[in-house]
Specification:
It is a single chain. The chain has 536 residues and is of the alpha/beta class. It has two domains: 186 residues, Phosphoenolpyruvate Carboxykinase, domain 1; 244 residues, Alpha-Beta Complex (Phosphoenolpyruvate Carboxykinase, domain 3), CATH 3.90.228. The chain has 13 helices and 33 strands. The strands form nine sheets. It has an eight-stranded mixed beta sheet, with helices on both faces. Strands 16-14-15-25-29-26 form a six-stranded mixed beta sheet. The protein has a five-stranded mixed beta sheet with strand order 4-5-20-23-19. Helix 8 packs antiparallel against helix 9. The relative contact order is 0.12. The structure holds adenosine-5'-diphosphate, phosphoenolpyruvate and manganese (II) ion.
Length: 536
């Protein structure tokens, strides 16, 4: 395959005639050399490339747009999540971007998403920097050498050096992400945070798969036991534990972030993982720690001086430090990344108020209620402006990436839960013993043990207690877990303060759910928490 190409590149209905060099489908070692020569980053002691992504080290959801046109106008769930942009501004920005791109060298990579062959979407990712192209190599699926891609469905331009002029270009800021469903093009400018590249295509799949194929697209990780057949899914907003908890030495990884659930089973969209590195330690997260080696891209990680040893505790650039690597860097990952229908689903919520039990077992109605509510916290650093855990309701545990109304995804999930008799668990990976600032984050080892107990069936044998306000059934005991952490009221010193906080949260649930009430079945509405005066 040629490493440089000279023909024009198709950008939707536009053609781009480059003047600079086009580096096409470079190998990872070649891209690493480019990144170093371009001064995008340096090597760590273990051979990983550590790059600085610049001003943006997390997503910027307020600067994400969908082109409003005939295809999208009556299908997209417009609002503060899916902001409309007139097609004329898209055209204007594309023209300006092409002008900017004329004078620079570009990296071009072809790949695809969706492990399930019938649902594949081919991609061309055009990046300004070599490190962004390494990201695209790792995170998307890689065509095999004997099976090059026949045609390209979607094109992504990721050009951090190009900035919009807010009022003139129809956007809010210099940085932007614009999805154009008609042209099948994504424009990313002004930001070098690579998470925007993967999450924009995730948004595309969240639109196409449910509408065109009836497939549930999910913001979740997935793994299977060594015997296969016992697939588990872990839904959760950024920073709640999808990547961490799905990397489990006792099980095999399917994927860490984005999956589809079809009539046949579950499949990964991506070809790699994008793990948070804050506080990373071999003892706690051995699989992720050992995936950091030559080829891996580290973003915004600091090093211990000249030793070049990554210092994962140093969050001076951002708390959202990241490692991107292909899925096979995790030992025992399933390839192709396809698995049977799930037996267990875990909703991961980082409860910043410390109200929810570390684990509870949900009925189908409760599962639907909590899926639509998507109560969790935004974790520090994951979005611009978020500097401490901030409670939020993120429908389907991924509202920021959903172009359709949450009820559409919930309806498909509801049917699947019943058909496949899936057990759903709500897991609080956030605070216990008090709210953020008073309590502490539940130790990872406890969360791992609770999940293992649920998967092994250990929690089928124990007694349950029903939460007075939330109506959730939580176990009174669990092997390898101190029982005083299983009940949140027990882990708080001040019980009155606990129930006051729980009632406040129940009110917030009710307030948030009002927007969905009209289309919901009464049984789902009955699964809501109920404010109670609890006498102690
Ligand atoms: N109890 C816990 N469960 C899960 N993650 C935890 C827990 N306590 C701390 N963490 C940390 O929280 C972060 C979870 O991030 P990650 O797994 O990357 O989330 P996601 O993939 O959902 O974005 C990791 O840095 C992990 O070490
Ligand atoms: C890439 C991201 O997703 P996650 O944190 O869920 O891995 C992100 O939120 O920027
Ligand atoms: Mn993740």
């Amino acid at each position: 395959m040629n490493s440089t190409i000279s023909e024009p590149l198709d950008l939707g209905n536009q053609k781009f005639y480059p003047k600079g060099k086009i580096f096409y489908q470079l190998s990872v070692p070649a891209l690493v050399e480019h990144a170093i020569l371009n001064r995008e980053g340096v090597l760590t002691e273990c051979g990983a490339l550590v790059a600085d992504t610049g001003k943006f080290t997390g997503r910027s959801p307020k600067d994400r747009y969908i082109v409003h046109d005939d295809k999208t106008k009556s299908t997209v769930w417009w609002g503060d999540i899916n902001q409309p942009l007139e097609a004329k501004y898209y055209g204007q920005l594309l023209t300006k971007m092409m002008h900017y791109m004329k004078d620079i060298d570009l990296y071009v990579r072809d790949g695809y998403v969706c492990a399930e062959k019938n649902h594949r979407l081919t991609l061309r990712v055009i990046t300004e920097s070599a490190y962004q192209n390494i990201f695209a190599h790792h995170l998307f699926m890689r065509p095999s050498r004997n099976e090059p891609l026949s045609s390209i469905n979607w094109t992504i331009l990721a050009i951090p050096g190009f900035e919009a002029i807010p009022l003139v270009d129809g956007v809010r800021s210099a940085n932007f992400v614009i999805i154009n469903f008609t042209e099948q093009v994504v424009l990313i400018g002004g930001t070098g945070y690579t998470g925007e590249i993967k999450k924009s295509i995730f948004s595309v799949l969240n639109y196409l798969l449910p509408t065109e194929k009836g497939i549930l697209s999910m913001h979740c990780s997935a793994n299977v036991g060594k015997e296969r057949g016992d697939t588990a899914l872990f839904f959760g907003l950024s920073g709640t534990g999808k990547t961490t908890l799905s990397a489990d030495e006792a099980r095999m990884l399917v994927g860490d972030d984005e999956h589809g659930w079809s009539e046949e089973g579950v499949f990964n969209f991506e070809g790699g993982c994008y793990a948070k590195c804050v506080g990373l330690a071999e003892e706690k997260e051995p699989q992720i720690f050992n995936a950091i080696r030559f080829g891996t891209l580290l973003e915004n990680v600091c090093m211990l001086g000249e030793s070049r040893i990554p210092d994962y505790n140093n969050i001076s650039k951002t708390e959202n430090t990241r490692a991107a690597y292909p899925v096979h860097f995790i030992k025992g990952a399933v390839e192709p990344a396809i698995a049977e229908h799930p037996k267990h689903i875990f909703f991961l919520t980082a409860d910043a108020f410390g109200v929810l039990p570390p684990i509870s077992k949900l009925s189908v109605e409760q599962a639907m209620y909590h899926f639509i509510s998507g109560y969790t916290a935004k974790v520090a650093g994951t979005e611009s402006g978020i500097i401490e855990p901030t409670a939020t309701f993120s429908a389907c545990f991924g509202k920021a990436f959903l172009p359709l109304h949450p009820a559409k995804y919930a309806a498909i999930l509801g049917k699947k839960l019943k058909t496949h008799q899936v057990q759903v668990w709500l897991v609080n990976t956030g605070w216990i013993g008090g709210a953020y600032g008073v309590g502490k984050r539940i130790p990872l080892v406890h969360t791992r043990n609770l999940i293992q107990a649920a998967l092994r069936g250990d929690l089928d044998e124990v007694d349950y207690q029903t939460h007075l306000i939330f109506g959730l059934a939580y176990p009174r005991s669990c092997p390898n877990i101190p029982s005083d952490i299983l009940s949140p009221r027990d882990s708080w010193r001040d019980k009155e303060a606990y129930f006051a906080q729980a009632n406040k949260l129940a009110e917030a649930f009710a307030e948030n759910f009002k927007q969905y009430e009209a289309e919901m079945d009464i049984k789902i509405l009955e699964a809501a928490p109920k404010v109670q005066i609890v006498s102690l």
